[in-house]
Design brief:
single chain; mainly alpha; Growth Hormone, Chain: A
Length: 412
């Protein structure tokens, strides 16, 4: 990749994607494979969130795990996924077979689901959680690169926003089902975990049947060493600026498990704990597609600023606002900030990375932000155990303010 080409690609991350006046816009213009990938994400999220919405409380109240241990487990699990994404993304660039790797990742995640109801101790849950995250790591970067491969540049923000919307519909349907099933089964965790197996295998079926991978253009060369120093340098300064900003931002948004624990500290019964994720995911799903479409038309930076301001408000409300109203407002703001940032960051990566290195670019992006999430979750758990929930959320507010400053400097 020549320096001029890298600079040209990275410059597009700071401006709206260009499009001809006749370019089609709207949901109907988004390719069918993006819709299918969205429904795959939705089904897998229904399965995962039925389990993960209950897992922190199950570990703390049933197995006697400390909050710090929950933070470490969550952070290490996500970091494991992030490390895996680097290699799967690079492999998808090398082979040109993104769908195959996505099937392997979703399939592995589906196979871990029966372990949760069968687990007899904490070590089994930790093992299943890690293997599940390895599956997430295998599928993540190839899937995100595949969205860019099949989507016109002028629709990237909308496409990533749509996939995030469908993904988060699953993220609030899962906890809703968990609540209903916990009520029907008198809080029998294992029954809920067993029923979560079904949508996971449905997700794999939809991926196999309905997602189409475009053929690699004739004459296009595979990148033989996507993780070499030369290839990584070819990603360009614009791409690495996006990664640095995302890492700073990730330090402010530790695992959503702490939202559940915040509700538990107020006395919320275990049967209603998944409702926290329902509120968050509902807000996320409602704004992810509109935020992505706005970033296509008016630029990514302004949408990211709005997302960071929402996160700052969420942290302050969760730290300082009293009562159930304060909790609900904080969780709602947290979900809104996710909708305004996650798809937009994915579009920025796709904008700034060369097409031949998209898998590697998404893999490195997820690796670096995953390391930041590990650090953020460990710090959040340690602050919680040492000084209470207020210290955790106020620290998040401080990192968010730093991310806003970093975005301002990057824009200048």
């Amino acid at each position: 990749m020549k320096a001029a080409e890298a600079s040209k690609a990275s410059a597009s991350s700071a401006a709206p994607a260009s499009a001809s006046p006749s370019a089609a816009r709207g949901l109907r213009a988004i390719p069918g494979s993006v819709w299918a990938l969205g429904f795959v994400s939705m089904l897998m999220d229904i399965s995962s969130e039925m389990i993960h919405a209950l897992l922190p409380i199950y570990m703390v109240t049933v197995l006697g795990t400390s909050v710090l241990a929950v933070g470490i487990i969550e952070g290490v699990a996500e970091a494991t996924a992030s490390v895996t994404k680097v290699f799967s993304g690079a492999l998808s660039d090398r082979l040109g077979k993104r769908k195959l790797l996505a099937i392997a990742g979703y399939g592995l995640a589906a196979l871990t689901k029966p372990v949760f109801p069968l687990a007899s101790g904490l070590e089994w849950l930790i093992g299943a959680r890690f293997v599940d995250r390895v599956g997430k790591g295998i599928r993540g970067a190839p899937r995100d690169a595949l969205v860019a491969d099949v989507t016109p540049p002028a629709l990237r923000g909308a496409a990533y926003g749509l996939r995030q919307t469908l993904d988060t519909i699953g993220a609030f349907m899962g906890p809703l089902l968990a609540i209903a099933l916990m009520w029907l089964t008198a809080s029998h965790f294992q029954t809920v975990f067993w029923l979560a197996v079904v949508p996971a295998f449905l997700a794999v079926g939809v991926l196999v049947v309905f997602v189409r991978e475009p053929h690699r253009p004739e004459g296009a060369r595979a990148v033989r060493a996507p993780l070499s120093r030369r290839a990584l340098a070819g990603l360009g300064p614009g791409y690495w600026s996006v990664v640095g900003l995302a890492m700073l931002f990730t330090l402010a948004r530790f695992s959503e498990a702490f939202l559940i624990l915040r509700a538990q500290a107020m006395g919320l019964p275990a049967v209603w704990a998944p409702g926290v994720l329902v509120v968050m995911a509902l807000a996320f799903s409602l704004c992810a597609y509109p935020a992505g479409a706005l970033s296509d038309r008016f630029g990514r930076t302004g949408v990211l600023v709005a997302g960071l301001m929402l996160l700052l408000a969420a942290d302050l409300v969760l730290a300082l606002a009293p009562g159930w109203g304060g909790l609900a407002a904080g969780v709602l703001l947290w979900g809104l900030h996710m909708g305004f940032t996650q798809g937009v960051f994915a579009a920025l990566v796709a904008d700034s990375a060369p097409a031949a290195l998209r898998g590697t670019a998404f893999g490195m992006f997820h690796l670096m932000t995953g390391m930041a999430l590990l650090l953020a979750s460990v710090m959040a758990g340690a602050l919680w155990d040492a000084a209470g929930y207020q210290a955790t959320f106020l620290a998040g507010a401080g990192f968010t303010a730093a991310a806003l400053l970093g975005l301002w400097m990057l824009k200048r």
